[in-house]
Design a protein that fits this description.
The structure holds two protein chains of two kinds. By secondary structure, chain A is of the alpha+beta class. Chain A contains 23 helices and 26 strands. Chain B is 71% helix and 0% strand. The chains are: A alpha+beta, B mainly alpha. The interface between A and B is large, with 62 and 69 residues.
Chain lengths: 728, 326
């Protein structure tokens, strides 16, 4: 008791000395040049041949150096060299291998040849795979079970080395796409284009199976010994890729880690059974030549990227677009990048702690969850979006951008009611397109974060048209300088023409019942689905929601058992082909397990698609896209749904941050004012100590009388009124 | 005693087999091997060939429980169930389907963080709840006891999720007293343990304290307690040395059985506080349809539960010498 005042005095003193109590990071890191971020889902693959998810590419894009990359500031997105010296221009060959000269119709090309020249002098990050003994032999190959016994993580192998990146490393990685044990998600797609890749995969499988039969478990396939017809090394800094026909989108793939260099030494090192048995694999410990290297990989808790000391060196872009200069995005023009020494990514599965840590300054940037939307954003009377006072006082910056994604509601065109090419079915789909009010949906369920789609292409993708020229005239009118959804009476009329006057089947007199297959997980989904029923009820159509789990949902769509469904697509690259192929007949889900989930087949659309996909961007391509969009709008295989708008927040100490939904290697451009961050964190997170004092007082307030009562009872005589009553 | 233990261990084998069959059946009622392959290979550009290859490599191209095409013992042994479940009994958990990591190694690594939270909650909680319950028993039928019961009922009525979110908001966000989530190795882990342990203690307070109070009140009216008082023992001594000791059997029934399960951690708590323990491992595995991890965790959970029951039986003989293994 007598020491209580002492503690009351000492505790605040301790608090003042030790900084913020709620700081999750070590005190020694407070002013370090470190970016703090979070990941929600642990990455499964960091091997560039397998990695395809957005949560994985957050890491791999900083580590690997594919030949190309996107310009950080320019919009629409522009490809620029990364590991390559220049963006390659294809040479087109005819079936006899003769070059098609200028003026020849490149659409007739039997082959396209991309010759890619890479920068000399690029070096890999320090890694044990490159460590050598004095005699030049690899230090850790072969590694015995005894030596491997003391190894638990890659960093337990203390000796490292490096070497220059060579063209053969790029070729090696392309060969890895066909590796039978790696399951590259783009192997199937690339077999359609890279000459000989399919046969190469079969050959490798044969070789691998034979090695396994000989009793070697997961043996190393030295791909240098197995040439691939369509890919060749020209010299140390040049390689060629030969494609079937013309595939202009190939350059976009060259900007993805699938085509980054992998040294054979790394493949050989990780293939050793003693190493693999310790869970030390290329899938877990990447080897790259990019600006950062992964130094801590504990996806259960934390992943750390640190500056690669061997990075070849780039400079911050000197050109941007529009307001970039005014927004301070060109202040670092020409300076060497990366700016940040270290990036710490912590596992944060729940949105509430993620958001609160951002507000406390422990994460440098954050998205906005629906729960936190009202705390962060306020809508002006004119619909303009601004930050709330609380955010502004903290100096938080708001960045918004429409994502190159689309969330649509699809009709299964194989269905006898909503499908088919008949005029009636088309009018039914058009009527539903008018009735389902996506503007309302965006307002209610997305806090206004999205734009109602007018067609398959989102803004920012070539072919998208803005304004009056871009509206879907089957659903909207242009009124007062903006699109306005057609009145429901128009939809009723279409229903009548479709054979369902007032929602009743003209032939049978029965009410029209349609089925929506959806994945439903929680109360939020119920509200959405109830809303959807109301939209259909505007047409007196009874919408039956068949809620299911994602597995069954996929199965239904795959087998063509769904009638109406909701789905989405995120762009792989900024080309209209990457969206319009979702409606291409050859991609039919039921017929060929492709990505056309509606199973829509339209001969005119498909013919135009085949022409459009191989064209360079220009007036002619735009014209064809306009025609395709018009056909798609008229036939309405989808309700075009919405394109989500991404809202991102960043603290004032984060510089050079610009939303970019296509590129992922963004860390190297960002800069942190660590001193300012440390000051503000300290200011925002001063411990509030009165609750501790109150807690102590409450405990004392209960304990003291209790102790006194016990003492009194112990010392009291056995009087009748002091006897302990029986328990009730 | 040894015979009894051997018998219990032998009983455990059919139970574990039953749990395995049930887990297997439930998992594959909801998921097919194709679903698993799709989940692991991603949702974009997955070809039927890639799915077949994935299943083939992991043995998921075989029949589930009975291989009608095979003959003899192979009808049973050449199945997914046999190939995947039998080795669990040798504690060979295999590799996770989502990332190919060794499950045994993951379990060993994640056990520590789970225990770092569960053990303090268990030990401090047990001491705190028993003490509070004894105090309520001491002050039974007074306003203090009544207030305690009201507090317990109120605490029981609130969802565990509320304690987590409320705790994070008050302690970390409003008062800035502890990190809101995260974990660190070594001694610095204590900073991250404060809040989840406190939340765990508060969340379990109502139910446990009220239960223990009921047990103590049952004992407190027994003849031996009256005799102890008549001997002139202090009330505190009566409670601790007589009531508490004799109330231990029902307490042990509930307490010892959960000790082995502490290794498995808490599903929700670990997710919210970013604790890299076995609870979050299990949740992740369920979400990613990783059957290898799910079956390993269920097997481990049921095994630890059986161990807990055996330990409970043993503890009975320690606290009550009249109990014998028969």
């Amino acid at each position: 008791m007598s020491r209580l005042p002492y503690w009351i005095a000492v505790v605040p003193l301790l608090a003042a000395c030790s900084g913020a109590w709620n700081d999750p990071y070590p005190a020694s890191d407070r002013q370090s040049n470190t970016l703090y971020s979070a990941f929600i889902e642990r990455p499964k693959h960091l091997d560039p041949v397998q990695s395809y998810s957005s949560n994985e590419i957050t890491f791999t894009a900083q580590i690997y150096t594919p030949p190309l990359q996107y310009h950080y500031l320019k919009r629409p997105f522009v490809l620029i060299p990364h590991a390559a010296v220049e963006v390659p221009t294809p040479v087109f060959l005819d079936a006899q291998g003769r070059e098609l000269r200028n003026g020849a119709d490149s659409a007739q090309a039997a082959f396209s040849v991309y010759e890619i020249r890479i920068r000399p002098g690029m070096r890999y990050q320090p890694h044990p795979a490159f460590a050598t003994r004095p005699d030049g032999t690899p230090r850790y190959v072969p590694i015995g079970d005894r030596e491997a016994g003391g190894i638990h993580e890659l960093r337990d192998l203390t000796e490292t080395g490096t070497r220059e990146v060579k063209a053969e490393d790029f070729v090696y990685q392309i060969k890895r796409l066909a590796h039978p044990r790696l399951h590259s998600p783009i192997f199937g797609l690339m077999t359609e284009y890279i000459v000989g890749l399919k046969e190469y995969g079969e050959r490798l499988k044969g070789v691998s199976d034979a090695m396994v039969k000989q009793g070697r478990k997961d043996p190393w396939l030295d791909l240098r010994e197995h040439p691939l017809e369509g890919v060749e090394v020209v010299d140390d800094y040049t390689y060629r890729v030969r494609l079937k026909g013309k595939y202009p989108q190939f350059v976009y793939w060259l900007a993805m880690p699938f085509f980054a260099p992998i040294p054979f030494e790394a493949d050989r090192f990780y293939s050793q059974p003693a190493i693999a048995a310790k869970n030390i694999t290329l899938d877990w410990y990447p080897v790259g030549a990019g600006p950062y290297m992964l130094t801590v990989n504990n996806p259960n808790r934390r992943m750390v990227l640190e500056r690669n000391p061997n990075y070849f060196g780039e400079t911050y872009p000197a050109e941007g677009e529009g307001d970039d200069a005014a927004n301070g995005l060109l202040e670092d023009a020409g300076k060497p990048i990366p700016f940040i020494d270290r990036a710490v990514f912590s596992l944060e599965k729940e949105t509430i702690p993620y958001w609160n840590k951002f507000l406390q300054g422990y994460y440098d940037a954050s998205g906005i969850s629906s729960d936190a939307f009202d705390q962060a954003i306020q809508m002006g009377s004119g619909g303009e979006v601004t930050l709330t006072d609380e955010m502004r006082e903290k100096g938080i910056q708001l960045k918004t951008a429409v994502a190159p994604s689309t969330f649509y509601m699809g009709f299964n065109l194989l269905d006898p009611v909503v499908g088919g090419e008949t005029v009636e079915a088309r009018k039914l789909r058009q009527a539903i397109s008018i009735a389902v009010d996506y503007e309302e949906y965006i307002s209610i369920f997305a806090n206004g974060r999205g734009i109602a789609a007018q067609g398959p292409l989102p803004p920012g993708i070539f072919g998208y048209r803005d304004g009056e020229a871009g509206i879907n005239r089957y659903v909207y009118d242009w009124v007062g300088g903006e699109p306005r959804r057609k009145p429901i009476e128009v939809a009723h009329k279409l229903m009548e023409e479709a054979g369902y006057p007032n929602g009743l089947d003209r032939k049978t007199g029965a009410p029209l019942v349609l089925n929506l297959d959806a994945t439903a997980r929680g109360p939020d989904d119920k509200a959405r689905l109830d809303w959807m029923r109301k939209q259909f009820a505007k047409l007196n159509v009874n919408l039956v929601v068949r809620a299911t789990d994602y597995n069954r949902f996929q199965e239904k769509v795959r087998k063509g058992n769904a009638q109406i469904f909701q789905w989405g697509w995120n762009a792989d690259y900024p080309d209209p082909e990457n969206f319009l192929f979702l409606l291409h007949g050859a991609q039919g889900k039921v017929k060929s397990q492709g990505e056309n989930a509606s199973n829509w087949v339209n001969a005119d659309f498909d013919r135009l698609f085949e022409r459009m996909k191989n064209m360079d961007n220009g007036a002619e391509r735009q014209q064809i896209i306009d025609q395709m969009t018009e056909i798609a709008r008229r036939e309405a295989p989808w309700l075009w749904g919405l394109h989500p708008k991404e809202y991102g927040l960043a603290h004032a100490w984060v510089k050079n941050r610009k939303p970019n939904q296509i590129a992922n290697n963004l860390l190297k451009y960002q800069r942190i004012d660590a001193v300012r961050r440390a000051t503000l964190r300290e200011q925002w997170n001063r411990p509030v100590l009165w609750p501790l004092g109150l807690f102590v007082l409450v405990v004392v307030a209960f304990t003291v009388p209790a102790v006194l009562v016990i003492r009194r009872r112990e010392r009291g005589t056995a009087r009748a009124d002091a006897l302990v009553p029986a328990a009730r | 005693m040894l015979r009894y233990l051997v018998r219990r261990v032998l009983y455990a084998i059919p139970i574990l087999i039953g749990v395995n069959v049930l887990t297997f059946a439930l998992f594959f009622v909801v998921n097919t091997p194709d679903d698993m392959a799709r989940m692991q290979l991603g949702v974009k550009r997955v070809t039927p060939e890639a799915i077949e290859r994935w299943k083939q490599e992991r043995g998921y191209d075989k029949p589930l429980l009975v291989n009608a095409a095979a003959t003899g013992a192979a009808r049973i042994t050449d199945t997914i169930f046999w190939n995947n479940s039998l080795r669990l009994f040798a504690f060979d958990f295999g590799k996770a389907e989502s990332d190919g990591r060794d499950i045994g190694h993951e379990i060993a690594t994640r056990m520590g963080p789970s225990l770092a939270i569960a053990l303090p909650v268990f030990l401090v909680g047990l001491a705190a709840y028993v003490t509070f319950a004894l105090l309520m028993a001491l002050f039974r039928a007074t306003y203090l006891d009544f207030s305690g019961v009201v507090l317990c009922v109120a605490a029981m009525s609130i969802s565990g999720m509320f304690y987590i979110i409320g705790g994070q908001f008050l302690v970390s966000k409003l008062w800035n007293l502890a990190p809101i989530s995260g974990f660190a190795g070594g001694l610095s882990a204590w900073r991250f343990m404060v809040l989840p342990v406190a939340v765990g203690l508060v969340a379990g307070f109502g139910e446990s304290s009220r239960w223990y109070r009921t047990i103590f009140l049952e004992e407190i009216n027994r003849d031996y307690v009256r005799t102890a008082r008549a001997k002139g023992l202090s009330e505190g001594r009566v409670l601790v040395h007589h009531v508490l000791r004799n109330a231990l059997i029902p307490i042990l029934t509930g307490v010892v059985v959960v000790i082995p399960s502490l290794f498995l951690g808490s599903l929700v708590m670990e997710s919210f506080f970013g604790i890299p323990g076995l609870g979050s491992y299990t949740i992740d595995a369920i979400n990613s349809q990783d059957f290898a991890v799910v079956r390993s965790m269920v097997f481990l959970g049921s095994l630890l539960y059986i161990v807990g029951l055996i330990l409970t039986d043993i503890s009975y003989t320690i606290v009550d010498p009249r109990i014998r293994f028969e």
